[in-house]
Write a structure and sequence with these properties.
The protein is α+β, with helices and mostly antiparallel strands. 35% of the residues lie in helices and 12% in strands. Strand 3, helix 3 (44-53) and strand 4 (64-65) form a beta-alpha-beta unit. Bound molecules: zinc ion. The site of zinc ion has 8 residues, from helix 3.
Length: 69
Amino acid sequence: MRARKCFRCGKDLRYSSYIKNWNPDDIEHLTEIWECDYIELFCCHCYSFKTKYQPNIDTEKNAKYIKIN
Ligand SMILES: [Zn+2]
């Protein structure tokens, strides 16, 4: 599994943390997202910030939530 960083703050994201908050039935789809170059991932903190202050930024429309514990 390749390494991913938060699109906004650059924090390292862990695949194990990413998938454990989701339904196991969705793992295959989630892995496709993780490996996809044009979908950006955000850490929990940055996702909260974005939805609160920057909800309509078009360049981030493919962003997906990723929770880091
Ligand atoms: Zn972040």
